[in-house]
User: Fold this.
Amino acid sequence: GAGVSQSPRYKVAKRGQDVALRCDPISGHVSLFWYQQALGQGPEFLTYFQNEAQLDKSGLPSDRFFAERPEGSVSTLKIQRTQQEDSAVYLCASSLATSGGNEQFFGPGTRLTVL
Amino acid sequence: GENVEQHPSTLSVQEGDSAVIKCTYSDSASNYFPWYKQELGKRPQLIIDIRSNVGEKKDQRIAVTLNKTAKHFSLHITETQPEDSAVYFCAAVDNAGNMLTFGGGTRLMVKP
Assistant:
């Protein structure tokens, strides 16, 4: 079956522009996560959804970052007024169950470059 | 919150040798420890995981050990092959949360 997909795969933005990154999780997966991976580092947690509810957004670095999952499937991560430090790979992951300790399946990521 | 440290950051081995990567975690409530392999420009993929009620788990050439008392866990790859070359990440999940806290990664290079 299809895995987690993300679009676009690459995004170049000028500083100050708004961007929207899309994640299509595996069908039926209840949990959805967004991570930010800077070059040469491990992914860092941004936010977590259980169905349409955003249960944890403690990792969002500023109020310029906003995520939604209105119908409990597709999710969008929006970054307003992008800055150079936002340049990173944004990874989406989904998991079948709601409790911790279940495999998270990752998408290919969106590489964001802010000029 | 949880903090995961991973060592070494780079590891070079000869084909056929073993490779060991070590991680420590800070939150004693953590109970799930997956290992991901990430090839250049690709998505992280789970290669093995272990839960806190188990001390060791093996899958063919890959094994993971967990020491809850010392709060550390290790990945062991035996009979390494060039296709094992990648960046490996350890991670931890605590009982209350769901998100993964990753280590900084280990770049493994297997020389033919």
